Amino acid sequence: MPSSTNRVSPTPTQPATKAQVWLARGAFALLVASAATLVIFAEGSGLAMIGVGAGAVVAFVAAAYWFLAHRGVLRIAAAALMIIVPVVVLVLYIREGLLWVAVLSLVLLALAGVAAGAALKVQDAAGGMRTYDAKPVTRPFLVMNPRSGGGKVARFELKEKAEAMGAEVAVLEGPELIDVAALARDAVARGADLLGVAGGDGTQALVAGIAAEHDLPFLVISAGTRNHFALDLGLDRVDPATCLAGLTDGVELRVDLGVIGGRTFVNNASFGAYAQIVQSPAYRDDKTRTALNLLPDLLAGHRGARLTVQVGDVTVVGPQAVLVSNDPYGSTDLAGLGRRARLDHGMLGLVTISVRNARQAIGLLRRTHQHGLTRFDATDIVIYADQAEIPVGIDGEAIAMPTPVRCTSLPHALRVRVPKQRPGVPAAKPALDWVQLRRLAFARGSPRPSTTP
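Predicted structure:
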């Protein structure tokens, strides 16, 4: 393997507009005004109060890390500190008669954040994913999981409505394991000209891979619990029955698929701490308690495999958590719980996190822990480990895979059929990156691209 390095390849950005530059400058002006409000109106106590606020943030982050990284008395003490710190700050401000000053300062700080967000917002020149005309289908085949989403299939009468529109529906009933892929392949062999799923993203991914393999359109019905894939396709997640309109009045999107060890995924694959937690038998019954019980050993490196991530000529050694996504998530969403602006960039997104003590956690906040958080866009990612097999969370499902694990992207591999009338994908919210904002506000020419250390 190549020698150990840890760096981020820059991602190109669009040239800044004058409006963005002035919004960035306005954000810094409001930031200065927020601090000046404390200094001027609090007189001699102003600088002290600023120091108290900054110190409180540092203490809270450290306490949060201790809460996750320890058990027993230390965890209880950390939880108490997380409660005490904001209360003490509030009491100090009230005692000094500075509560109204603090509120005004916070309002100005919030306005600075709004201006910063507007300055960093980059409009996609393509205006969203391109749509294509959809040919009529005569033999659509849909798989429906009645247990997904708390019973949405029955609640929204999806089976009856789909059959009324001419679709063949296979309902996954009974406690026995059903080979969903086998059902889809059998339907293709019998002449199905569209495949679709009403269920979780894991089931969506399995059938989507078969649809892509046979170049068939794929229908996503938002009947799962979180419906992350449906969200990024701009579908209605409140009423999954509206997705059925794609059968008769739809258009097609050509979206990417991720591939991990020969298996397709539509959202993400996770390695390290999260994958270890999801694989635990107790996770399904009590997610929070299981996570809190396992995290101390995972953060300390006493449990789980030691990972090494290879991205081109870059090597990241020993991250505690790794997230590989089918197209990059927004810069504000490191956990893969939000959304991706597009699904047709032909790239994988990668986030790695390494935090082993409270000092490094605070360093992430201050951006001085340079190896703590890295982000990459790539077409090929390999995860090595010091174990022959590691747990991987693929679209929310925990499986074990032999190492090394290779992740690749299949650009525009999937023809997704969506209704012409759908909510659409909202504009992404940018991360409040004050380093990039400073470049935007004060550097000459176009701002340089931002990288997250």
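Summary: The radius of gyration is 25 Å.
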